[in-house]
## 1
Amino acid sequence: MPRDALGVVTLPVGNPVVSGTAISADVQNATVADLASMIEDSLSRSGKGGMNAAMKFADGAAATPSVTFTTEPNTGIYRGGAGDLRAAILGVQRLRLTTTGAVVTGILDVTGAASVGGALDVVGNLSVTGSMGITRPDLPATNIVASASSGAWPGTSAAAAVPVTGLSVSITVIGRPVVLAVVPAFSGSNAEMGVIAGTTNSFASFQFTRAGGVLSTSTMTALATQYNTVGSFIQYDLPPAGTYTYTLQAFTSAADTIAICRHMQLVAIEL
């Protein structure tokens, strides 16, 4: 073989020819045969014939890719390191493929459906035309929990917070926001939540608790001997992953004032 695996050419025996040596058919024919073999083993610039083995390129860089174009030599593909294939546009890296996945630098514009079976790391804007078909398999099987109805709870006039009968729920969350809502229980009876004032202007307060700690308090005021109600009470919570018990408590500002919460229900929803 005149050319070895490293591309080194070995001259046939009798070459180089010493000055004054008579022309020899053996030497001349062997030389021509070697030249023909090397030319045949070289890649045609006009695309005559294809490669019989993998083509190896220099590593290149973003400004000088190893696979590039005559009219745009700073656009192409290059090797960034071990197991690291990159693509550059006008000398700037835009795509990187490694053993852990792909990284796109810039805008990823997807036209049509996109199915992602793992993590998608995009540096820049993600513009999608069409459906991505994304599901949320990490949501828990039950992420909405509702309490029993408060029924005909007689209310409280206590100055210290007391639990509203039945309005307690336990929910297991994975760390997403939780919405707490006190809503009508749709039990067929009139649902109401509010305050009945005594002989003076007064108020009733309702508060959500998580694991015994108060999250927030909402106060409703009524003028003397009057009655004031609301349709619902909503609170947002941001707990870490875990299992929590939420309750609704009530208290008043005067002994002749009543905090009422009849036929209502406490619902916890993890978003």
## 2
Amino acid sequence: MSDTNPPANPTAPNGQPQPPLVVNLQYIKDLSFEVPGAPGTFLTLKQQPQVNINLDVQARRVNEGQPLYEVVLSIKVEANAESKPVFIVELDYCGLFTLNGVPEQAVEPVLLVECPRLLFPFARNILADTTREGGFPPVMLTPIDFLALWQSRRGQAQVAGTA
């Protein structure tokens, strides 16, 4: 009898079951910090800047036939005062994840909810350190509900698909 489906609980060479989600590597793929009006910004800034934060999560399979995925947590922070940019930070923080025996219907939520949840604390620290080292108070992102973000994105995709 031939079974073409992978085993539900793959085992490592030592015979121990492998965890369903393995973090292989975390890294900064892109980091940019700009103060377009420096040094004038530091000399003339009189009010607390308005800070806008945009966040996105993307995932892609690295190699066909292998359960290895790159998850990219993209964060862009723009601070403006008096209609002028104070600073701009862009960060793509990534992780390489292996999924072992995860059912097909669970792959997307694992990649777009659980993986960014694991990456977020590290990305948050990088943003805080970067803005602090750039001469500003650290930007401390509040925790993100990646499940709600994923559900919202799926709802928007379904509405767009039916329109």
